[in-house]
Fold:
Amino acid sequence: MSDVNTNYLYLIVFAALIGETDIEVNLSSIIPAYSEYVTVLLGIAGTKAVLIAMFYQHLRYEPKSLSTWVIIGLVIASLLMGLSFVQLHVGH
Structure:
């Protein structure tokens, strides 16, 4: 892939990250319910984590075995965050 295409791709990913951050900042005015608010925030955080790992940490260009281990770690972290969210939600 040429440098121009690579730079363009990084700019698109950067724009997506800025857009997601804007949504995160203004989300409380859009979604007043706490459980939906936190669910959407976790989804946006997961999307941002994947974009950063794949493009800015260059996992997209690494061997599949390394990417697989990172994805397994992200899935485990997501499950733990989800369980924490359920526990907090039930406790309220």
Q: What stands out?
A: Residues 3-91 form one domain.
